[in-house]
Amino acid sequence: MKKLDTSLMHPRDQITMIIDKIYRSGLTTTSGGNVSIIDENGDIWVTPSAVDKGSLRASDIMVVRKDGTIEGRHKPSSEYPFHRAIYESRPEIKAIIHAHPPALVSFSIVRQIPDTNIIPQAKHICGDIGYATYEVPGSNELGKVIAREFDKGFSAVIMENHGTVVGGSDLLDAFQRFETLEFCGRTIIYGNTIGTPNYLAHEQIEEFENQIPRLLPEMEQVEHPSDERAIREEIKRIVHRACDQGLMISSYGTVSVRWRGNDFLITPTDVARWNIQNEDIVQIKNGKREPGKLPSRATWLHQEIYRRNPEVNSIILTQSPHLMAYSVTHEKLNVRTIPESWIFLQDVPNVPFGSHFAGEETILKLISKDTPAVIINNDSVLVTGDKLLGTFDRLEVAEFSAQSLTMGASLGKLIPINDNQVEALRKKFLG
């Protein structure tokens, strides 16, 4: 995946950027967690001990020089010993994130490892997950047990009764691994609330990875008139908003908007979603792609939906946390919860994993004015609509409905809006 170019960013600035994102995403607390980078000199830049993660500044970041000299305004994180141990164990790891995100802490206190085969991209991003037995935080013993797991080749480790630690080739790589692993944990937990999660076979994950976009021929000349540039800005803002709202993670998600006729613009396959910029978005015109760019692997599906459904002008395909509970359990999402949910969604069928692959017809035969959204088992939710903001609203309504149903499962049996009430809604709002 193409990453934000941090080659000219100081380690202090990289760390403050990522710790801010972790904190604002609800993946750590004011006092919890630590982040580090080892630079080309062997110096380790690390978050300080006992400084508010919600207001951390670059000047707060500590450095432990290769010779052991400590520089900075504070004390280095108390967990610095295991950061150092990991770097000594795995020289190719250049950045480390440790935190106590809620779902992975849940796994750590029941002493289980999340099965990343729950969603397709996670096995490739996270790899196999290690498990480090409990030792006192900040101790050399904890560093040793964690380093032993990294010695085995793991780049993500569940820490018994503690949390998780992940490493990466750089800090953005580590963050994507951290975020994706926590998302897997949440998906499994929410799935267990409403049913029994199903997992993908290794062969299905390989099939997903092999869905490299059919490389459309490149255009010889690209034009960017003002209406096209306006669509780029709209897509960028919605993708960033989806990430901010927890409706999309950096490793998965596609947004497209019809431009003229059946031409459209679509997000790329190789850019972290929270960092997508206008210039990353790919124009698809007359069956050709913008030169030098790799559009989403779902481009074929979007192209066919636009071709067959003139009323559809925007599409969002994403993984949002509570809808994914229905995706992985293959349970039916009953949107007869409140009037708004049914009016916006009407019916949300589940389709088998792989229905979104190139050449498959299942989704194409379902999408219509009366079926604007589908849940793809163990993969995602696909939502269609007219204006992109309206499609995003539909996604939010679907996610809120799924969240209400997931939370309501502990209270009692769902009592849906009845057929007579639905018919009244149909006549008033859809007639």
From TrEMBL:
<dbReference type="InterPro" id="IPR050197">
    <property type="entry name" value="Aldolase_class_II_sugar_metab"/>
</dbReference>
<keyword id="KW-0479">Metal-binding</keyword>
<feature type="domain" description="Class II aldolase/adducin N-terminal">
    <location>
        <begin position="13"/>
        <end position="189"/>
    </location>
</feature>
<feature type="domain" description="Class II aldolase/adducin N-terminal">
    <location>
        <begin position="233"/>
        <end position="406"/>
    </location>
</feature>
<dbReference type="Pfam" id="PF00596">
    <property type="entry name" value="Aldolase_II"/>
</dbReference>
<dbReference type="InterPro" id="IPR036409">
    <property type="entry name" value="Aldolase_II/adducin_N_sf"/>
</dbReference>
<dbReference type="InterPro" id="IPR001303">
    <property type="entry name" value="Aldolase_II/adducin_N"/>
</dbReference>
<protein>
    <submittedName>
        <fullName>L-fuculose-phosphate aldolase</fullName>
    </submittedName>
</protein>
<dbReference type="GO" id="GO:0019323">
    <property type="term" value="P:pentose catabolic process"/>
</dbReference>
<keyword id="KW-0456">Lyase</keyword>
<dbReference type="GO" id="GO:0016832">
    <property type="term" value="F:aldehyde-lyase activity"/>
</dbReference>
<dbReference type="GO" id="GO:0005829">
    <property type="term" value="C:cytosol"/>
</dbReference>
<dbReference type="GO" id="GO:0046872">
    <property type="term" value="F:metal ion binding"/>
</dbReference>
